[in-house]
Amino acid sequence: MTAWTSDELATIGDAEELDLASRRADGTLRRPVTMWVVRVGDDLYVRCMNGRAGAWYRGTQTRHQGRITAGGVAAVVTFADPGDTAVHDRIDEVYRTKYRRYGANIIGGVVNPESRAATIKLVPER
């Protein structure tokens, strides 16, 4: 698997929001969706507030590929399963810390069992 550079990790991880466009079955990109992004170690994650039923999340499951932009960085990515279930607690913690100014009710939209089930690890394609 390809890794993010330290500059990409810092820039995307520090960005307030990320735009994500997933690939359709025919290879074209869907319209970008804006969302929060968090960095845990050397990995970047996004979550769907509507869980697996969310339209943009379902779109990522078609080809597991797309494009992101955040903080001036654009990258072609693979949408991967986060793997280790223990990482979800760390992701929750980063969401709570990074976005704390929005309050617990808003953060609760991405820190709950349904959103945890719709967590995507962003892996750069080189």
Automatic annotation (TrEMBL):
InterPro entries in the cross-refs: UCP028498
Pfam families, A to Z: DUF2255
Protein name: DUF2255 family protein
Protein's organism: Nonomuraea rosea
